[in-house]
Amino acid sequence: MPKIILIPIPNLDFDPSEVAVSWRILTSRGHKVLFATPDGKTAAADPLMLSGEGLDAWGWIPLLRKIKLLGLMLRANTSARADYAALEADRAFQAPLAYAGLDVADYDGLLLPGGHCARGMLAYLESQPLQHFTGAFFDSGKPVAAICHGVVLAARSRSPRSGKSVLHGRISTALTWKLERSAWTLMKFCGRFWNPAYYRTYGEQDGEAAGYRSVQAEVTRALAQPGDFIDAEPGAPDYFRKSSGLFRDTDRDLRPAFVVQDGNYVSARWPGDVHHFAATFSRLLEDGLTNWQPR
Question: Is the pTM of this model over 0.90?
């Protein structure tokens, strides 16, 4: 039976792969996908992740920015860009709801995508109405999926029943510090040197250890114990593909992906996991709810 899925996004700078590929996979399986933004206005993905322009060291020079090396490697791939072009024509995407008017009863599933550019993402990650909605949605027992910075939104959302983060007592993954630090370092020394913080939504304050404001660190602090944050382990099949950040999964090749399912909650790390992530969430919706209880 088709389900109604909500994907909240910011007005600007969400990751095009995590949203568009998930939308395409869910709708191809017959599900109805709706969108919500802070003010109910149509959103736009991170333009750098679509074009790749501005990611190379010469990206600040108008005539040279169209020459892309790092930009070709870091932007959304051809398939994801095609999915995003199709998404832009979708009526539900063109007419999103507003965060403040969301009602848990209207949806069968919730998918929280990511993005990293602080300019647009803060309105999503720090929205109190959206955090309240997410907390209530987790408490409803309906399926939830979160990927990359979307897991930060989940970590910040509190259960109305317990008052704790909705991730407390669950196993989760998210963007790892290894992946986040690698992209940040690449920008500082080989790419967007005039704005190396582009890949760091939140930077450390004076006196804080490196990585304290990373996605992994914040999500881990919301869990019941540090070991509840997991990533691909050395020795696992296809470990290099899963851990290097050099490979992305596809509909036909899921080997690079790392996805975690804990009851009705599915999590993943970055756009390289998105095909496996969306397919796992779709199967969860189709197989029905599980009787997950906090540990």
Answer: yes
